[in-house]
UniProtKB/TrEMBL annotation, chains A, B:
Name by which UniProt lists this protein: Cation/H+ exchanger transmembrane domain-containing protein
A GO biological-process term: regulation of intracellular pH
Subcellular location: Membrane
GO cellular component, one term: plasma membrane
Organism: Linum tenue
Length: 542, 542
């Protein structure tokens, strides 16, 4: 039954006012779906282009559409297109972060875990401090002499939020795996830090900062980090155990896929419910699901989930950029600053500068610290890699937008001039950093880290590693180099100190975890599940 | 960044009232996801049960949850759980109907096209007439002597809407393919009829029903039927042409899957925009996509789309039944009828009786008419099959609920007693017909049409047909019996009169359509797309 029929019937039932709002939502859904298709097709055609990527295309198309709507509506842009935090946090962000966890190279991620935590936690605190201090010193021409400490820290936190989504688009996991895992991992931990910051500054009395308050802050941060991770791991293990015990594959691929999607989403929403860091939770749920659950399902479920998660994430990303682009042109928020464009431009420039300084203030010192703990020079971060890490994390995206809206407006509206300036400045910083920095990142990486060397290095590593492995075709979700400790020669090679945690984890994993929760090589053979055709799987998954 | 953090930060920004509504939506999403998982697992465990199916389980779990919420909230059930037409029509219904078109046995469907149209169009008109007349005659104790003609026809149409979703759950496409395509196809055409009915009764002057008005009615019905179908076919062909021309598979499975999902949804929303029958449009879009687009994509895209569409549809179905079950217990709407429960019970019984009489009034006469046009006795509908068709279409579901809400309430609320009685009666009819009729359908089909015969017949047909075919492994989306006209002996066999339309369509399809839009055997070989491994595909798709 069509809504339109229902709408028309409203007219004679005396509820005609529903008609226009439902019609408007039908029109805007049509518009968004057409634009999404356009972005995908243009992104496909521009794949070889070194400057543009899908995010920037979507952002530019969004801005163009915004202009067209503005012209068609003769200056009064419609309110449908105003950024909605709920849409962003509840529907668009979870698939992106889950997919990142699901497809991340787990070995690489965990080997750099300490560096990632250092960057994400301490780095974000340093960046927030630098930006807040910078605004305080410059006082930003906001015409508010006595800007509250809470607001200062909030602005610092908003502009310290590295956009994980942009990073995923700009850095390539296969070309620059180390930088990808560092910058993306940092973005995920960054979230936990921001949540703790927001919660902490409410209770924190800035006039009496004591050592006990700092300890409390550190304690609640650790609690958030650990409990969010544990929740994600638990939900992931529950999904693995459920599917292994009931063996859904006996009957239906659809049930397995449905359970995996629903459980992944459940982990995110449970974290929201318990006031934890949902991004961290769903990220770890993705890692656990790819390590255990994914191996417990039928072959067609594996192909389906792998591509369905990637597609969902891909569409959500394009949607976000389209949305930010369209929202940027909303006329309401520009009205307050139109008679003093200079203030807005100078505020934006100062903020952009502070973002760059704030990031530099932690990337280079922390990289130095991190290098001190490494034994091999090949594990150390070169200055070129440090510059790339600094640059690739400069982009500010939808997360900053959502935070700014939440802090400076009431459901998208504001009546105060300083707040309006903060909103327009945030939009300017987001657009500028995404488009300009985003465009320059690919050429910069090519210039600083020429791909031939990188690629050759990883190729030679592979060709060296494969003869050592018993079943090289099995390495579909981890790196093929040294993930399987079965051959004794390889195990000996791995028993250098930095690998010992990994070695003990493998023993625990093989001895206890996999027999209980399933995983590669630990799924009992059941008719109807083609677990034996691993070489075919390789061919199919690409 | 967690919403919860954002919420907390609201407190000190002076927008604290957002907190409770966002928290409530987080709680209800968690609840729904947990219930969906529970339904899937219980449905899996009860798979062999002959009485229950996933819909009934979901409905019962929904009712139980409603009771628990009612008890926890001490009699004031929360308003979150009120049925939303927008959620139903814009998000839950499209994937179900699209998937039905995507997975339908096309040959069987088109062979019975005339019967389906007869049942769906004329049948719905007869049923609406019988139910409306029945209410008029009995006057239904509504205490409204002068019930308007418009309202009478609306009630008739609400209770003539066969629930396609229930049908999909109760009838099995593999066990009773003829009945499945008849009853389900009828449900789809039924939608077009209902839309035209609603539109027509607004302009129709019941005191001056002329022959011109009837002709206009018939004309607008034909227009709606044909234009909706054409729109669906066009969007489907556009997706096939786009993917064939650009060859997305060269780069990315994710882009192909995204384009297919988005285009399918676009067809539905475009039909809504143009006031057409969206269900009919998306159904035909699904048929065209499975015939052309699906063959133009990579092997992993095929596996992914096949299972992703089925999963989406599966989850949406369970969601609907859960939702209807939970909504049924909402206390508000029962308040008005609580002091006269007899009226509600008698109204419901009368409506149930009228639904059964109304359906009988067209199934048996129209089956007789349809049988007159068939030459072979094997094509004719036996009396047992007619009884099954009558019975399987008796269930009323979410579509009836949505229509009733739209007609008798204003965003879920009503202050008039007759309207409240209609709402509670609709809920009673939906619950009773789904649970009781639904439970009895499987045993009834087993009793009337024993499966052994059916299965044996189709088995022998297959074993007879396969040697005639050159590549039997190719028949993954159509019936294997006679879908490929390549061998001359088979082609001669097909050239009996009733197959001539099909024969000409095949010639047109092979000569013009497939070279342009792609399709089985007409996709140029491109490296990276494993089109040659058709036998593997079979193994993988199951």
């Amino acid at each position: 039954m069509a809504i339109v029929g229902v709408e028309n019937s409203n007219t004679w039932m005396g509820a005609g006012e529903l008609l226009s709002s439902e019609h408007a939502s039908v029109v805007s859904i049509n518009l968004f779906v057409v634009l999404l298709c356009t972005c995908i097709i243009i992104g496909h055609l521009l794949e070889e282009n070194r400057w543009l990527n899908e995010s920037i295309t979507a952002l530019l198309i969004g801005i163009c559409t915004g202009v067209v709507i503005l012209l068609l509506s003769r200056g009064k842009s419609s309110r449908i297109l105003v950024f909605s935090e709920e849409l962003f946090f509840i529907y668009l962000l979870p698939p992106i972060i889950f997919n990142a966890g699901f497809q991340v190279k787990k070995k690489r991620f965990f080997r750099n875990f300490s560096t990632i935590t250092l960057f994400g936690a301490i780095g974000t605190l340093i960046s927030t401090g630098v930006i807040s201090a910078g605004i305080y010193v410059l006082n930003l021409q906001l015409n508010v002499k006595y800007i509250s400490h809470h607001k200062l820290v909030a602005i610092g936190a908003i502009f310290s939020a590295t956009d994980s989504v942009c990073t995923l688009q700009v850095l390539n996991q296969d070309e620059t795996p180390l930088l990808y895992s560092l910058v993306f991992g940092e973005g995920v931990v960054n979230d936990a830090t921001s949540v703790v910051l927001f919660n902490a500054i409410q209770s924190l009395d800035f006039s009496h900062i004591s050592s006990i308050a700092s300890l409390e802050f550190a304690g609640s941060f650790l609690y958030l980090l650990i409990s969010s991770t544990i929740l994600g791991v638990l939900v992931g293990l529950l999904s693995a155990y459920t599917i292994k015990t009931l063996y859904f594959g006996r009957h239906s691929t659809d049930r397995e896929v449905a359970i995996m999607i629903l459980m992944a989403y459940l982990s995110y929403m449970l974290a929201e419910l318990f006031s934890l860091s949902a991004i961290l939770t769903v990220f770890f749920c993705g890692i656990v699901m790819s390590h255990y659950t994914w191996h417990n399902v039928t072959q067609s479920s594996r192909v389906t989930t792998k591509h369905a998660f990637a597609t969902l994430s891909f569409v959500a990303e394009i949607f976000i950029f389209l949305y930010v682009g369209m929202d940027a042109l909303d006329i309401e928020k520009w009205k307050f600053v139109s008679h003093s464009p200079g203030t807005s431009i100078s505020t934006s420039s100062i903020l952009l500068g502070l973002v760059m300084v704030g990031r530099a203030a932690f990337v280079f010192p922390l990289s130095f610290l991190s290098n001190l703990t490494k034994n091999f020079s090949s594990d150390k971060l070169t200055i070129k890699q440090q510059v790339t890490i600094w640059w690739a994390g400069l982009m500010r995206g939808a997360v900053s937008m959502a935070l700014a809206y939440n802090h400076f407006t009431r459901s998208g509206y504001t009546q105060l001039r300083p707040n309006a300036i903060m909103i327009t400045s945030t939009i300017t910083v987001v657009l500028f950093s995404t488009v300009v920095f985003g465009m320059l990142t690919k050429p910069l990486i090519k210039f600083l880290l020429p791909p031939t060397k990188q690629m050759l290095a990883s190729d030679s590593m592979k060709s060296l590693a494969i003869p050592l492995l018993l079943d090289g075709g099995n390495s579909d979700d981890e790196e093929s180099s040294n993930s399987l400790p079965r051959p004794t020669s390889l195990r000996m090679f791995l028993r250098t100190p930095s690998y010992s945690i990994h070695y003990h984890w493998r023993r625990f994993d093989d001895g206890f975890m996999r027999p209980v929760f399933g995983g590669r090589g630990f799924v009992p053979f059941v008719p109807g599940s083609p677990v034996e055709s691993d070489d075919l799987q390789q061919q199919w998954l690409n």
